[in-house]
Specification:
heterodimer, A: about 110 residues, mainly beta, 4-stranded antiparallel β-sheet, globular, B: about 120 residues, about 0% helix
Chain lengths: ~110, ~120
């Protein structure tokens, strides 16, 4: 069974630009969650999608948005990038909800200059 | 409130030593789930174990063992005879219901413990 894939793996953008990250979950998994990870900050929850609906949301500004498609693939978008958005963005999929283990992709390393 | 505390920020041991990573949680939920994940230097988080609140049996998987104690709200992780490949950041997480958020379950993460196993 293929694991969670994320594209691109590395990205360099400049302040003010926008970026779209993609995540393909494990086949059969309907829940996709996104996290931001920065040194010393642990895993910061962005949002979770289930059956194309946002089910949970973290405390991030509206510049961070996401969506999920009917095939469970998900994208997250960050508009008007700031230097502080430089981070590792991780996508995780699970069968149904947070009572199930999550399987993570390799992440997208975003650098904002 | 729901919270996960991993008090040990960094631990350094010498190969073959045993090491225990602490995890203390807070929740008002009666049915909850606890997890441990490993994040090696490569960056990809790896699921290690899932335990529900009704199963307090300790679990052993090779050199790894987990001690779940509801009385002290702890879910500690022990690595026996540590190896250099065990060097990673280890995260403990709690899944509980958020009563103010439509009763949805949400995963609450600890800040992680960075384990360095030196040869």
């Amino acid at each position: 069974k293929a694991g969670v894939t994320q594209t691109p793996r590395y990205l360099i953008k400049t302040r003010g630009q926008q970026v779209t990250l993609s995540c393909s979950p494990i086949s059969g998994h309907r829940s996709v969650s996104w996290y931001q990870q920065t040194p010393g900050q642990g895993l910061q929850f962005l949002f979770e999608y289930f059956s194309e609906t946002q089910r949970n949301k973290g405390n991030f500004p509206g510049r961070f948005s996401g969506r999920q498609f009917s095939n469970s693939r998900s994208e997250m978008n960050v508009s008007t990038l700031e230097l502080g958005d430089s981070a590792l963005y991780l996508c995780a999929s699970s069968l149904a909800d947070a009572s199930y283990e999550q399987y993570f992709g390799p992440g997208t390393r975003l650098t904002v200059t | 409130a729901q919270k996960v505390t991993q008090a040990q920020t960094e631990i350094s041991v010498v190969e073959k030593e045993d090491v225990t990573l602490d995890c203390v949680y807070e929740t008002r939920d009666t049915t909850y789930y606890l997890f441990w994940y490993k994040q090696p230097p490569s960056g990809e988080l790896v699921f290690l174990i899932r335990r529900n609140s009704f199963d307090e049996q300790n679990e052993i998987s090779g050199r790894y063992s987990w001690n779940f104690q509801k009385s002290t709200s702890s879910f500690n992780f022990t690595i026996t005879a540590s190896q250099v490949v065990d060097s990673a950041v280890y995260f403990c997480a709690l899944s509980g219901r958020l009563l103010d958020a439509g009763n949805n379950r949400k995963l609450i993460w600890g800040l992680g413990t960075s384990l360095a196993v030196n040869p």
